[in-house]
Amino acid sequence: MDAAMKDVKSKPSAALKTVLDELPVRTKKIGDQPKDKEGKKAFEKQVQEARDVAAQCVLTVLCAVESNKIPAAVKELTDDERDTLMKFIYRGFGERSVVDDKPKATYDCNILLKAHEEISKLMGNGPIIRTIHTRLEV
């Protein structure tokens, strides 16, 4: 994530590509699941922790991109990267923090909406439908 944050202002698409590369969202990238019940629980906990860290990295980098640079950054991503980014955008919409005893969005929803809009302009409704109907978790 440090490399991506270093590039986010000067090369936002490179920063997004860096954090979207080799994410632990696909089972084949995670590895084989243990057979015993206790091992499975520990494995699933580790997988969820890895997904949480990956989501935090992707969303932090995305929200650090200047609003006017989002269209160009999204345009330079591959279709698979845009699909994956859309999944993280939807996850970002759902993330909440508590500030002064009030729930607040963790990530800048204006940036998330801008990226969502740009992906939709380039790819239509496909990424939205795949995000909603896929079993692939981020």
Range of helix content: 55-70%
Looking at the structure, what is the overall shape? globular
**Number of domains as seen in the coordinates:** 1
**Biggest beta sheet attributes:** 2 strands, antiparallel
Subcellular location: Cytoplasm, Cytoskeleton
GO biological process, one term: Arp2/3 complex-mediated actin nucleation
Family: Belongs to the ARPC5 family.
GO cellular component, one term: Arp2/3 protein complex
Describe the structure.
By secondary structure, this protein is mainly α. The protein has a single domain, classed as Serine Threonine Protein Phosphatase 5, Tetratricopeptide repeat. 67% of the residues lie in helices and 6% in strands. It has eight helices and two strands; from the N terminus they run ααααααββαα. It has helices at 2-7, 12-20, 27-30, 37-64, 70-75, 79-94, 109-123, 126-133; strands at residues 96-99, 102-105. The chain has a two-stranded antiparallel sheet with strand order 1-2. Helix 2 runs antiparallel to helix 4. It is globular. The model has no long low-confidence stretch (mean pLDDT 87). Keywords: Cytoplasm, Cytoskeleton. This is Actin-related protein 2/3 complex subunit 5. InterPro entries: ARPC5, ARPC5_sf. Its main location: cytoplasm. It is found in: Cytoplasm, Cytoskeleton.
